[in-house]
Amino acid sequence: MSLEKFINQAVSSWMSDDGPDSDIVLSSRIRFARNLDEYNFPTLFTNGEAEVVVGTIMERANNTSPATFGQLEMIKMGEIPPLQKRVLVEKHLISPNLAENSVHGAVLLSDNEEVSIMINEEDHIRIQCLFPGFQLSEALQAANEIDDWLEEYVNYAFDEKFGYLTSCPTNVGTGLRASVMMHLPGLVLTQQMNRIVPAINQLGLVVRGIYGEGSEALGNIFQISNQITLGKSEEDIVDDLKSVVSQIISQERSAREALAKTSNIQLEDRVFRSYGTLANSRIIETKEAARCLSDLRLGIDMGFIKNISKSILNELMILTQPGFLQQYAGGPLRPNERDIRRAALIRERLKMETKDESGG
Amino acid sequence: MICQECNQRPATLHFTNYSNGEKTELHLCEICAQEKGELFMMNNSPVFSINNLLAGLLNMEPAFTEQKKEAFDAEQVAKCPQCSMTFPQFVKVGRFGCATCYDAFREQLTPIVRRLHSGNSMHNGKIPKRIGSDLHLRKTIDQLKQNLKNLISAEEFEKAAETRDQIRELERKLSAGQEGGE
């Protein structure tokens, strides 16, 4: 398959760069955790119950579809190869937990992949809406639509006091996790993250690396989300997160301005060195690729580099993950083989971009 | 980075441990981390997984420590009538077995939930439409029952009879609604 065709198939809409504030916010995500009233939670349910849960949701999706998102496609975890599951994880459409541990796990996906409904993960149902750029309220609205559509048909486990009942008490209440993925090289370079992270934590929000819990901030990408799910309304939770994210956006912008004023040449040098590495290396590890891609993205945002669209960086962050590399290669690769493939894919992709420019 | 344990899956959890001034790093995938977590528990070594952290938090709960003592003393362990999960089991796993667990462990749970959610223990968000109408009905019934008590103690028996009929009517509606919802 040609790289172009592969990318067209691989890229979901959240990776496009046309969202608001997309120079800093890569994507906005809303997740609702829900359980069906009648069956044990996934921690304890029997295979039979797990199957019934999948069947119930499948029936709903076969007979009707949510107005805005149309027919949803059902993928059962037991019916696709491990590599394909990995690709879904790398696209952030399913969790590693669903891919690897779930009993009768499945996912319902909308055509544009903005909606994904995981079935039998930690909870029976996890509704996820993923939008490009800073669009938390829009994502919440979409998640509510999906939630209402399901609720017309199923009985949710709900309690007056505790709200939506979830497997883990950390999700109880609204079952809502709202999160944004932010690219913050300015704050990292000016060493302000160490100061900002504790402040964010004090506001009841969590900062994590790109692949969630426990992962490092690869390529200066941070995920910021709410911790509290009980006692506040969905709108309040989202508004609180929005106001903090807005402040971080403006701090990141001033950090970039300050960098441009005080060390423009050093920054330009750094950006072009990273560009050079990406355009020429023959072996590149995930970490180095992520770091260089972050520099390149910053270089585009700051106007040092003009002939590359920044959406390819969102793409490359995803496409150079092990699952995608192996998918593109058409089979399993050892880690060192991946590093070679990764370098080749990045070179090819950058060449494609500059060719488009000169041709157009 | 690849998981140090299985050398297959990618390491998604990264731990740094300092003991006796020595720094050790551990890079694990979620599955191996979970297995390790079990191991750590058995060895009494440092514990890393989220569930174990949660368990640590729950263990701090005085309500639970009392519960535990009581359990050992009298072998009276709170148990969910639906899925048979016991409270100590929940503390160990950090996850509930079913929706009824919330009812079964309501008392022990409230302080824990409060701690997890910055002092909040009352849902203040969306209510499922179908359950919502029931909720409204139940609240009205509760209110009428209170009125009924007051009327009886005030010896206003005629009004009390009216209220009683009203309650019966609403209760009929409630149970009809629940059957209709099945």
UniProtKB/TrEMBL annotation, chain A:
Catalytic activity from the UniProt record: L-arginyl-[protein] + ATP = N(omega)-phospho-L-arginyl-[protein] + ADP + H(+)
Record flagged with keyword Nucleotide-binding: yes
UniProt xrefs under Pfam families: ATP-gua_Ptrans
E.C. no: 2.7.14.1
Binding of ATP, residues: 27-31, 92, 126, 177-181, 208-213
Any one Gene Ontology molecular-function term assigned to this protein's record: ATP binding
A Gene Ontology cellular-component term: extracellular space
Activity regulation, free text: Appears to be allosterically activated by the binding of pArg-containing polypeptides to the pArg-binding pocket localized in the C-terminal domain of McsB.
PROSITE patterns in alphabetical order: PHOSPHAGEN_KINASE, PHOSPHAGEN_KINASE_C
Residues in Phosphagen kinase C-terminal domain copies: 24-255
Role according to the record: Catalyzes the specific phosphorylation of arginine residues in a large number of proteins. Is part of the bacterial stress response system. Protein arginine phosphorylation has a physiologically important role and is involved in the regulation of many critical cellular processes, such as protein homeostasis, motility, competence, and stringent and stress responses, by regulating gene expression and protein activity.
Annotated family: Belongs to the ATP:guanido phosphotransferase family.
Name listed for the protein in its UniProt record: Protein-arginine kinase
TrEMBL record, chain B:
Superkingdom classification of source: Bacteria
Transferase among keywords: no
TM annotation in the entry: none
A Pfam family recorded for this sequence: UVR
Gene3D superfamilies for this protein: UVR domain (4.10.860.10)
GO biological process, alphabetically ordered: stress response to cadmium ion; stress response to copper ion
Key words, A-Z: Coiled coil
Coiled-coil ranges (or none): 141-180
Family matches, as PROSITE patterns: UVR (PS50151)
InterPro entries assigned: UVR_dom, UVR_dom_sf, YacH
One GO MF term: zinc ion binding
UVR domain: residues covered: 138-173
Translocase is among the record's keywords: no
SUPFAM superfamilies according to UniProt: C-terminal UvrC-binding domain of UvrB (SSF46600)
Name of this chain's protein: UVR domain-containing protein
Organism for this UniProt entry: Mesobacillus boroniphilus
